[in-house]
């Protein structure tokens, strides 16, 4: 078998996909800080956000190193415009109510857990080491989200309705996470990454098990909306970046 | 290593960074201290690095560099036996996978989880159903 060689740009783009997912969801979740339904949930959501931003720092630093232009995680997080972000559309969706946030978290953590588990065997040392660290955190996020899917789904009429509405918002963004393209085929061929489509069966069985516990039915999924991996985002990402980037862009290079 | 046992963890000062398993190794050639973060986003990581740097500098060991090593990933299994006892004495239930969680105040195992996350990423909130005290539990990780 011929060893597939990945270009610098392909590796950088792949690391940006991984890092931007964590960064954007981490930033989005941190909007709950001080607003969650209870102090325990406030702490939970803020701590999940913290884990994600920590992962993003490691992954984006690796992306900057692969790129070789001297950009670190901060430069990539605060210095890129919306079209340069490579996150999937799911993570940039607005928080909505707590039910909608939990639906998004469950869908994303299920995907990310399967992904990171595979990437611990990556032939790229940085990817393997970062994911070996991150997969333990993601597993915990998934447990938290699964608990809440069951609790809300099997709770009151209102909690179930809100959770179902939250999932209804997000179903159209599930397909994108498992879509293969030229880049994912190249990183998979180099044993650095994984083909997203191969993660789908693990995702499906988890979804089925947790929905079963929650007494919920999985609806027929709507047609997927895609484009995030190429930089075509929903209008929500621009607003999120405006909040996240405004201080470092107003005062470039400022230090505490 | 003995020297670094005097560096307390910034979040749990009852424990040293060695007892928490954050300091993995000390190499002499090249002079390097290897540390491993507990969580990817743990904000204490930078403070820990700074504290270790200060300790080394104070003892004339400026030549030592500090290297962050991600793999193998930090696990609560690396918290030393003494560290676990100190955690309990400090009011935090240490991580003991598979064992019932005992209240650090009264020792009862009649306890329940209140929230999967506590005051820091490494802890969860629990409550004792005997003495009714809430307490932090170090998550098994």
From TrEMBL, chain A:
Pfam annotation, one family: PaaA_PaaC
**Where would you find the membrane-spanning parts of this chain?**
none
Q: Which GO terms describe its biological process?
A: phenylacetate catabolic process
Q: Which GO terms describe its cellular component?
A: cytosol
Query: What InterPro entries would the database entry show?
Result: Aromatic_CoA_ox/epox, Ferritin-like, Ferritin-like_SF, PaaA_PaaC, PaaC
Q: Which PANTHER family match?
A: 1,2-PHENYLACETYL-COA EPOXIDASE, SUBUNIT C, PHENYLACETIC ACID DEGRADATION PROTEIN PAA
Instruction: Give the protein's recorded name.
Output: Phenylacetate-CoA oxygenase subunit PaaI
Question: What lineage is on file?
Answer: Bacteria, Pseudomonadati, Pseudomonadota, Alphaproteobacteria, Hyphomonadales
Q: Which gene encodes it?
A: paaI
From TrEMBL, chain B:
Domain (MIP18 family-like) spans 2-54
Pfam families (alphabetical): FeS_assembly_P, Zn_ribbon_PaaD
Q: Which Gene3D superfamilies match?
A: Fe-S cluster assembly (FSCA) (3.30.300.130)
What's the superkingdom here? Bacteria
Q: Specify the PaaD zinc beta ribbon domain's residue ranges.
A: 99-139
**What NCBIfam families does the record point to?**
PA_CoA_Oxy4 (TIGR02159)
Family annotation (PANTHER family) = 1,2-PHENYLACETYL-COA EPOXIDASE, SUBUNIT D-RELATED, FE-S PROTEIN MATURATION AUXILIARY FACTOR YITW
| Protein name in the entry | Phenylacetate-CoA oxygenase subunit PaaJ
Give the species this sequence originates from. Answer: Henriciella mobilis
Give the taxonomic lineage as stored in the record: Bacteria, Pseudomonadati, Pseudomonadota, Alphaproteobacteria, Hyphomonadales
